[in-house]
Amino acid sequence: MNVAIRRDDRGAVTAELALGLPVLLAVTTGLVWLLSIGAAQVRTVDAARETARAVARGDDEAAAVSVGRQVAPEGVDVEVVRSDGRVTVRARGHLDGPGGMFGFLPGVDVSAEAVAITEEEP
Fold this sequence. Notes:
This protein has one domain (about 10-115). It contains 2 helices and 3 strands. It has helices at about 10-55, 60-70, and strands at about 75-85, 85-95, 110-115. Helix 1 (about 10-55) runs antiparallel to helix 2 (about 60-70).
């Protein structure tokens, strides 16, 4: 007596997809978070550079810091130090993680420093 046993594979793809989608979502979220950290760091560098340029060419320091804060991501502080004909600008801040379901992702500190030589007035 030969009895053939047939296995039914219907539903296997659905089960594999159901298990794979959360992993794919987690990886995608992590990559997006890394990209946003990179973009925030670039904006912080730009803020320090723009502020240093503005102060070095003789613009009002408060106005230059205001421009730097507009360029920088939210929560970044801009500090100006003048010494020996140079302007040094430090921009520092902390970015929170994405939160919500992805609250396990950590926040990150961003910082940048820019130095410019003060222009002499003719």
